[in-house]
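Team,

Forwarding the record for the chain on the shared tracking sheet. I've put the sequence and predicted structure together so nobody has to dig through attachments.
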Amino acid sequence: MGNIDVMFEPVRGLMLQIGAFVPRLAVAIGLLLVGWLLAKALRFSVVKALRALNFHVLTERAGIDGFLQQGGTEKDSTDLFGWLAYAAVILASLIIASNSLGLTQVTELLGHIVLFLPRLLVALLVVIFGSYFARFIGGAVRGYCKRVEISDGELLGRAAQYGIMVFVVLLAIDHLDIGGGLIQQTFLILLAGVVFAAALALGLGAKDRAALLIERWFPRDRSKP
């Protein structure tokens, strides 16, 4: 009889562990279900609130929605912000559920992801408002060149717009802290190389062309001595 008890002792221990784990698993599943419902409700509320504030008009004028649609999606930036809210609630539910199950490593990993979401949100806002500002400055430069009869106003406007966008994208990447500044340094090195090459080419082989462009953009008043 003692031998039988010894044989069934591991089975009894396993059953006790399963009996203690099943309630925690049920609680975790319930938390995930509640979190999923809350996430859907929050996403719906965020999208409705942003559309009521005409946020989609701003993103459309900034060109962000057009960029997303060129990527093959029918969603706009408002839907993207709703998805971010949905993901934040789902991740919070996963953290609570994994903590209730005693999965500490999973909890820490999900915690790092949740802390990254606000930075991603701020970076997206920087890109959206920066893109809108870049388009505004580009239009202002083109309008000014048209008023003063500079024929290359379209080129100068695009150069101003793209220059601001480069600065905005670098600012967003710096806020995300991706690569520890490696991306910014690499881009600055490439930009410096392009500028140096353009200046060298202009100085060596296109001096006459540059003089003609400057004369056309800013003609001298020949009536003065």
